[in-house]
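Q: Second attempt. The first request was missing the SMILES, so the protein and S-adenosylmethionine are both included now.
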Amino acid sequence: MPMEQDPYDLVAYPSFPHPYTHPDHLAAMAILHGLSPAPVEHCRVLEIGCNEGANLIPMAYAAPRSEFVGFDLAGLPVARGKERISELGLRNARIFEGNLLDIGAELGQFDYIIAHGFYSWVPEPAREGLLALCGKLLTPDGVAFVSYNALPGGHLRKMIREMMLYRVKGTEDPEQRVSEGVGFLHFLLETRPEGDAYRLLIEKHLKSMENRSPRFVYHDELGEIYHLVYFIEFMEHARRYGLQYLNEAVLPPVNDPCYRREMRAALESAAGGDILKQEQMLDFARMRGYRETLLCRADRSVRRDFPVEDLRRLLLASPARSTPGEAPGAKAFSLPDGSKMESNLPGVIALLEALEAVWPRSLSLDEIEPRLAGTGFALDDDRANLLMRMVVTKIVELHAWRAPVAGEVSARPRASACARQEARTRAHATTLLHSNVALDDPVVRGFLKLLDGTRDRNALLDAMKAEFPAIPPEALEEGIEPGLGFFHRAGLLEA
Ligand SMILES: C[S@@+](CC[C@H](N)C(=O)[O-])C[C@H]1O[C@@H](n2cnc3c(N)ncnc32)[C@H](O)[C@@H]1O
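A: Got both inputs this time. The predicted holo structure:
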């Protein structure tokens, strides 16, 4: 009988780096909750189901003294990942073809374990094996990141998936499966009146699919396995392997029901101080369909009050840019996504201006405090609350590691070799902050490829003229400084 081809060999999965899986973020969340995780500069990271290493390879490049190991069942993506690693000459990254069910203690212990897009898409033995492996391989203060499709929101996505699967039954060709499935949803949509709740639901799912590559839809929506789980059940599963809830990878956004006073009272009366029950109740209010849960060992003591002494162990950064505020003496701080915060507190203004001046680098509180002299800003419990509010609104980021980003644009700017490699082969580049920059524009992509640290401004302009003869030279010249500024702020330029 012919062997069935692995679906991830048949159709390449469009993997991306995921900022919240980075050990810097995992360490920051662990420190915030009172743990003492391994420093990002010297740690061991394991990625389970790493596919072609799109997440793992940029991490290994940016933290050369840490060790990064990944494995995946599918041979072709692993081969592509290995080729990238050898081309970059990374000695601290290893990707191999392997089945989770065959992996054991021989890999050693890991400070950070990542399983993104795995738990909900694999059969039951592999789900069991995943949490067993985390229980076995996690160091005492280690952190595991596990994402999964959650209930109750997952019911809706499952309904959409099942309708698509019904329509594409018997269709083998991957492209045809996606186009027939998506086409069927469009058909259903048209049968419903404007504003109808069912129509809105289909519309929402269609939009999310159309924003992603059809290859994602092939695997994520139309794949064979689609396991849904309530948070409380997932945590019970993790508990059986000696793991407990640290937190979600991302703190709830400002509009989350958990911050509403009436919700807090309802949670207390229904769930008392049981954080797991509270989170499950909140998932009903959120209609949550997806989670990225951080786990740590059950014997660790987890704090949830964000004490000042733990904030002191972290670094702060802010991508916000300041402009004069509307109120007298106030300043507005705006994020790239357009969200804005205004303050007239001299301490807050001085803090954010200090961070603005060094972005994309970060500062410790010890480094910031001299700049706050005379503002009356001291990090007491109230100020720590204020700081956490700025973290929740994403005006301030918490870090546990200084990414190797350039402090300024140098005379001969050098973009990370990993990003330049991506510019040759992919439609995005990974920054040293582990975020994604789209490279759809061929001029942006071409410019990035030239930033290897050997060219000054004149040489860059000459190279751009040779590369893009159809573009007027003045336009190219005008683009050099803003282009470099953009790459610098994105965290693509190396120290
Ligand atoms: C949805 S993809 C996610 C890939 C990657 N983590 C990401 O987020 O881009 C799931 C991956 O798990 C791999 N996988 C499935 N079962 C596995 C197993 N038993 N052992 C190792 N890898 C497995 C698949 O080959 C596939 O690459």
